[in-house]
Amino acid sequence: TTRNPVLIPRFFFPYDSDGVLIEYDYVLKCWPLLLEVDEMIGVILSMSEVTNTVIEERQQDTLRRMARVINITPKNNNVNNEKNSINKDNNNNSSSSITSIINKDASDVDECKEMQTLVCVEVAEALASNKYDIPFALFYLHNAEKHRFEFA
After folding, report:
1. Rounded to the nearest 5 degrees, what angle is found at the Cα of 88, between the Cα atoms of 82 and 94?
2. Which of 36, 85, 120, 128 has the fewest C-beta atoms lying within 10 Å of its C-beta?
3. 3-state SS class at 112
């Protein structure tokens, strides 16, 4: 006889292929095989690969975090709602700094540069939380006066 399976929701199996770490994710289900006297004589093991699902969920989470930061712009009317959602997720003070700058009139060039810097920091933190899928990133800011993008 068998009993209810034991579920291991995510089993991470890293594989080193010539110095490159390849990620494999599995869901495991284990059913004990029992005799009539509750003596275990074996286990049935079912393994399902869920690597693509895990990677997609992680990438979606990174995109959501970046979108929360990017959506905080002077054009956005829901600044306070965005501030609350970021602070709930990150529990850090840099988001409130961004919001306080955006709440001001960002006509001052220094304030705009400070806002750009803070947004870059927030986006960099979101990207850093997903080091497996985005191993590095470069930031370029648009310089309207020189009509070009410059390395941030």
Report:
1. 70
2. 36
3. helix
Is-above-0.70 flag for pTM? no
Sign (positive or negative) of CA dihedral 69, 123, 24, 33: negative
* Residue at token pair 């989470």: 61
The H-or-E segment that residue 94 falls in is: helix 94-103
- The 10 Å Cβ neighbour count of residue 142 is 10
- pLDDT band with cut points at 50, 70 and 90 for residue 29: very high
**Helix-then-strand count for the chain, H and E:** 4, 5
3-12, 41-50, 71-80, 107-116: range with highest mean pLDDT:
41-50
Other Cβ atoms within 10 Å of 72 Cβ, number = 24
Residue 16 DSSP one-character state: E
